[in-house]
Design a protein that fits this description.
Layout (H helix, E strand, L loop, with lengths): L2 E3 L5 E3 L2 E3 L6 H14 L3 E3 L7 H11 L7 E6 L6 H15 L4 E6 L6 H13 L3 E7 L3 H10 L6 E5 L7 H9 L3 E5 L13 H10 L3 H11 L3 E2 L6 H6 L10 H8 L14 H8 L6
Parallel strand pairs: 3-4, 4-5, 5-6, 6-7, 7-8, 8-9, 9-10
Antiparallel strand pairs: 1-2
The structure holds NADP nicotinamide-adenine-dinucleotide phosphate.
The site of NADP nicotinamide-adenine-dinucleotide phosphate (NAP) has 26 residues, from helix 9.
């Protein structure tokens, strides 16, 4: 598996395993155990996924040395602000049963994220987090944070798949030395991705599945991917992308699928901000 070197020298695996929409503890723990057994070392969770304990239990039972793992979790909007972020970080760490994180991300560019960022900078300097970053920061917010922050974010996790390629956003991240990480790398299965004609014909050519082709495509653009599945065979399938390369022609054919907008969530909409701010994870 390839890695991407973050600005501070930390090596981040280019493929990891995501656990969004797996709130059932047993299902989540089993999926993470299957992922670790298959060879994933990066696990992506969040306080707002309600499964940090299950992820922690799977990590513990795996017996894999801590230093071989790359564990990410995220700070939710409700816990934004300097003091709240510090408390929420410790709560996440306790739920995961860990004493440090590899990557801590601000989940949404909402509420007092500058206060949160100052807390993350301090936790990073204290050695409690190996790398810090953000999610869903569109170009203007990312540029603003990069210009003003004492320590620039090292990662920006955003929606990235063939139907929403965000080419300009990737250029913006490159300018600031921020590594892009794709959420929804399989477009959450939407927009007929698995039966798309172009993707299907490319997949046949390489003897691969559509899932493997779209995951490979993103990594060839330098994007870290974190596909989610609760099915063992898919978890394994999604990792079998490191033994082939897409040609320039096939990369270009996939690029032609860009719709230029998200079919999952519009972070620039006022309704989205109201909805996400209303999503409470504790009292
Ligand atoms: N920062 C953020 O705001 C944010 C937002 C969304 C997600 N994320 C992170 O990114 C991760 C990935 O994104 P995502 O979970 O939204 O979507 P995704 O990985 O693009 O897609 C997951 C969906 O694809 C299906 N699937 C997985 N592998 C497949 C395969 N080989 N063939 C056919 N179907 C397959 C899964 O079904 P089954 O599970 O039934 O197999 C599930 O329905 C999340 O789990 C989370 O860690 C972050």
């Amino acid at each position: 598996m390839e890695t991407r070197k973050l600005r501070n020298g930390v090596e981040m695996p280019m493929e990891g395993f995501g656990v969004f929409q797996v709130p059932e503890a047993e299902v989540c723990e089993q999926a993470v155990r299957d992922a670790l057994a298959a060879g994933y070392r990066l696990i992506d969770t969040a306080a707002a996924y309600f499964n940090e304990e299950a992820v922690g239990a799977a990590i513990k039972k795996s017996g894999i040395p801590r230093k071989e793992l790359f564990i990410t979790t995220k700070l939710w909007i409700q816990d934004a602000g300097y003091e709240n972020a510090k408390k929420a970080f410790q709560t996440s760490l306790d739920k995961l049963g860990l004493d440090y994180l590899d990557l801590y991300l601000i989940h949404q560019p909402m509420n007092d994220y500058y206060g949160s960022w100052r807390a993350l900078e301090e936790l990073y300097e204290e050695g409690k987090i190996r790398a810090i970053g953000v999610c869903n920061f569109y170009p203007e917010r990312l540029a603003d944070l990069c210009v003003n922050a004492r320590i620039k974010p090292m990662v920006n996790q955003v929606e990235l798949h063939p139907f929403f390629q965000q080419t300009e956003a990737l250029e913006n991240m490159k300018e600031f030395g921020v590594v892009p990480e794709a959420w929804g790398p399989l477009a959450e299965g939407k927009h007929g991705i698995f039966t798309n004609e172009i993707l299907t014909s490319i997949a046949q050519k390489y003897g691969k599945t559509v899932a493997q082709v779209v995951l490979r495509w993103n990594t060839q653009r330098g994007v870290v991917i974190i596909p989610k599945s609760i099915h063992k065979e898919r978890i394994e399938e999604n990792l079998q992308i490191w033994d082939f390369s897409l040609s320039e022609e096939d990369m270009a054919a996939i690029s032609s699928l860009d719709l230029g907008h998200s079919e999952i969530i519009d972070h620039s909409a006022a309704e989205t901000a109201k909805w996400l701010n209303g999503w409470k994870i504790h009292e």
